[in-house]
Amino acid sequence: MSAAAHTAFCGWSQVVSPAMIRQCLKCRVPVLQQSTRAYSIFPTPLDSEEKEMLHRIVRVDHAGEYGANRIYAGQMAVLGRSKSGPLIQEMWDQEKKHLQKFNEILSENRVRPTALLPLWNIAGFALGASTALLGKEGAMACTVAVEESISEHYNSQIRALMEKDPERYTELLQVIKEFRDDEMEHHDTGLEHDAEMVPGYWLMKNVIQLGCKAAIYVSQRI
Amino acid sequence: MAALLRGLRAGRTLRGLSSGKTGPTSRVVAAPSAVNPQCSNLNRGFHRAALRLQDESKSDKPPSSSSSSSSSSTTYHEHYQATEHDTAAEASQHDSASDPAAEQPERPNTSYQDQSGEHGEEYETEEQLQSRILTAALEFVPLHGWSMEAIAAGAETLGLSSASTGMFYNGAGDLVLHFIAHCNSQLTEILAEQHKQVQLGQAEPKKTADFLREAVETRLRMYIPYIETWPQAMSILLLPHNIPDSLKHLSSMVDDIWYYAGDRSTDVSGSSLNVRPTTSQMNWYTKRAVLTGIYNTTELVMLQDSSPDFQDTWSFLDNRIQDVVNMASSAKQVQSTGEAVVQGLMGAAVTLKNLTGLNQRR
């Protein structure tokens, strides 16, 4: 009877814990397993610092994929019917998958999305459309610049997580690594398709990368 | 804190008197009748401590008897007063809301946890002591209002001197914030329990509007015992140094309510979040802002409501939620109308281009 009650107590606390984690984040007491699923991408944060770090990572990655999605949408709006349409569509589909994955992680772990999402919506679309107006080379140059900064960003996240505790974040690291490889592939595709031919390539690339860095910095916090 | 040390010393002297067990420090054999009046006061205090700690530890007690400090401090108290006073243990099992059987698996392990438990306990006990005092002070709020007098009276019922109010720098603000946090955690428990029932298939999932209405009503009903003094509490919450904390509590409560209302998908498809990339994630903010508005206005209505069982308040709440639902559906209608209009215009443009021959390439 006590064993059964003990098991019932375990079940109760497993269900209660997602919200109870909020209550006990002040004290440094190990919290319960958050999800009852066997497989969980996000490890349950041990304290509020870790929670803050993980939430920032997910928030900024989600914003990044959302922005990339809108950039490709902008490019497709202009170049959709041209020769490079299918190529851009294919890259866009991969980004859609990434966004879906981060949507799941965000909602399951109750991470707050960045409040600047409408801004990234408009800015991304505008960036994609305006670079596509410069032709296929412009679109590819934009892709190269954006994918390069996203890959760098993912790499620094991977480094940070590996420094802390590779085993704890295994699933999350796997996801980020896989996405980073996809982005590198897009970057290489862009280079293959004459990205460097666009006039003012150096200037455009640096301006876009600066914008991406600012966006990443801001999305982590706001 | 001082009470604990006195208790420890009393326990040790009693153990020295007894000839029997030489187990861990907290295992006391002396009969309650030999205990001096101070100790019986302590017993009462620890009895209540066990109640409070059990209430609180329900929220952060891990299921297994691992050596986390909260469970060890709980079991230390349980064990201590269980061996001090046999009937107190049974009384606590009856009185406290938590699972009584959870004590039994814990008890055999306390002998290993005592040493580590004592160290961890020093850190935990002050916050828990504060929350114990504040919880006891809530009884006196109808009498003294949300003030230091209530806290002092609460401290006295726990057997502490009323000077222990000195540890509350924020005074009445501490009391109000503690009460709010307590209400929030009660609400979260209720919602989680309902959620579990739905997951187990024992209850029907409610529609969002009904769910929100019931959640807000449940939460506001927790204020009914204190409704006379609630305006004072609200004004305390609006003091500048309390605003960050009260906003934090409010936002976490609203987030919890939406979470349990299903504002994320538990299935893998993420349907509600993926469909419209333009507006899906802004919904996160607008939903919470809307619910905050509903909650705050309903709270204000409740303050000056004199109808039986606050019927006017609940119908106000109904109307507000209905407003929101109407607004959401009319927004959807506007959007689909807009889309239809755009498509119509595009079709007209294409027809024109075909008619004038502009659509020919090559």
Automatic annotation (TrEMBL), chain A:
Per its record, the protein catalyses: a 5-methoxy-2-methyl-3-(all-trans-polyprenyl)benzene-1,4-diol + AH2 + O2 = a 3-demethylubiquinol + A + H2O
According to the UniProt record, what class of enzyme is this?
oxidoreductase
List GO molecular-function terms, semicolon-separated. 3-demethoxyubiquinol 3-hydroxylase activity; metal ion binding; oxidoreductase activity, acting on paired donors, with incorporation or reduction of molecular oxygen, NAD(P)H as one donor, and incorporation of one atom of oxygen
Task: Alphabetically list the UniProt keywords.
Answer: Iron, Membrane, Metal-binding, Mitochondrion, Mitochondrion inner membrane, Monooxygenase, Oxidoreductase, Ubiquinone biosynthesis
What are the recorded Gene Ontology BP terms? determination of adult lifespan; regulation of gene expression; regulation of reactive oxygen species metabolic process; ubiquinone biosynthetic process
Query: EC number(s) for this protein?
Result: 1.14.99.60
Q: How does it sit in the membrane?
A: Peripheral membrane protein
What note does UniProt attach to the cofactor annotation? Binds 2 iron ions per subunit.
Signal peptide (UniProt feature, chain positions) = none
UniProt keyword Protein transport, yes or no = no
Chain sites annotated for binding Fe cation 2: 95, 147, 183, 186
Which pathway does the protein contribute to?
A: Cofactor biosynthesis; ubiquinone biosynthesis
Q: Per its database record, what is this protein's job? A: Catalyzes the hydroxylation of 2-polyprenyl-3-methyl-6-methoxy-1,4-benzoquinol (DMQH2) during ubiquinone biosynthesis. Has also a structural role in the COQ enzyme complex, stabilizing other COQ polypeptides. Involved in lifespan determination in a ubiquinone-independent manner.
| Assembly | Component of a multi-subunit COQ enzyme complex, composed of at least COQ3, COQ4, COQ5, COQ6, COQ7 and COQ9. Interacts with ADCK4 and COQ6. Interacts with COQ9.
UniProt-recorded name of the protein: 5-demethoxyubiquinone hydroxylase, mitochondrial
Please spell out the taxonomic lineage of the organism that makes this protein: Eukaryota, Metazoa, Chordata, Craniata, Vertebrata
